[in-house]
């Protein structure tokens, strides 16, 4: 099984889905966060998964993450609601070994507020994408997508909830396939 490290910033529901989906393909050996108060960190620690928080400046945080990820033997990094931009240097050191989940059907709606933008555009479907992380934001190769309908009366919150459920099944499946490549 391939050792995976997960970076989170908050709730960590995708991280939980990745932990639940671990098995023959991959195992989660470290959960790290830029936010010491991330709810997901406490959950991971309760499961007995090693955790790390670093609230400092980007260079120091990334150096700490890099060292801990290497110490843990991590081969693939999964971003799961990690809301910081990684430096080009960090991405280069982990080239083609960082994946991310993004709440839109890329290449549509890179960046933030994806659900409000999909609704404002009158889209009839929305969804999520798992993609390789490159220096260009949300622009790396798409590894998998899941689609959900936009329903009459949807708000960004109701649409986010529907997309999030799709994220939770998509991400573990795509990560398992990716680590077997
Ligand atoms: C998820 O919807 C994820 O796709 C999104 O943040 C949420 C995190 O929720 N990520 C991004 O917007 C990345 N730019 P979670 O912490 O419960 O997994």
UniProtKB/TrEMBL annotation:
Pathway: Purine metabolism; IMP biosynthesis via de novo pathway; N(2)-formyl-N(1)-(5-phospho-D-ribosyl)glycinamide from N(1)-(5-phospho-D-ribosyl)glycinamide (10-formyl THF route): step 1/1. SUPFAM superfamilies: Formyltransferase (SSF53328). N(1)-(5-phospho-beta-D-ribosyl)glycinamide binds at residues 12-14. Residues 6-175 form the Formyl transferase N-terminal domain. Gene3D superfamilies: Formyl transferase, N-terminal domain. The active site is at 102 (proton donor). GO terms for biological process: 'de novo' IMP biosynthetic process. (6R)-10-formyltetrahydrofolate binds at residues 58, 83-86, 100. It comes from the Bacteria. The keyword Transferase applies. GO terms for molecular function: phosphoribosylglycinamide formyltransferase activity. The keyword S-adenosyl-L-methionine does not apply. The record marks 138 as: Raises pKa of active site His. It is an enzyme of class 2 (transferase). Keywords: Purine biosynthesis, Transferase. Belongs to the GART family. This is Phosphoribosylglycinamide formyltransferase. It comes from Sphingomonas guangdongensis. The lineage of its organism: Bacteria, Pseudomonadati, Pseudomonadota, Alphaproteobacteria, Sphingomonadales.
